[in-house]
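Problem: given the chain below (64 residues), write out its structure.
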Amino acid sequence: MKGTVKFFHDQKKYGFIETEDMDDDLFFHVSDLEEGDSIEEDVEVEFDQEEGDRGPKATNVVEA
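Solution.
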């Protein structure tokens, strides 16, 4: 899937990805990033989606 990083909190190491296909944003944690330990907001990304403890989440997140 593709989307855009809407928000990333550097200190708490989590963020949200906005997609055109879904109404809700997808949560991701820094451990879901394929490279690095941070990502900028408004960056286009590709990712997989899986069901997390609190709903859908993004995994294997990489810059598009």
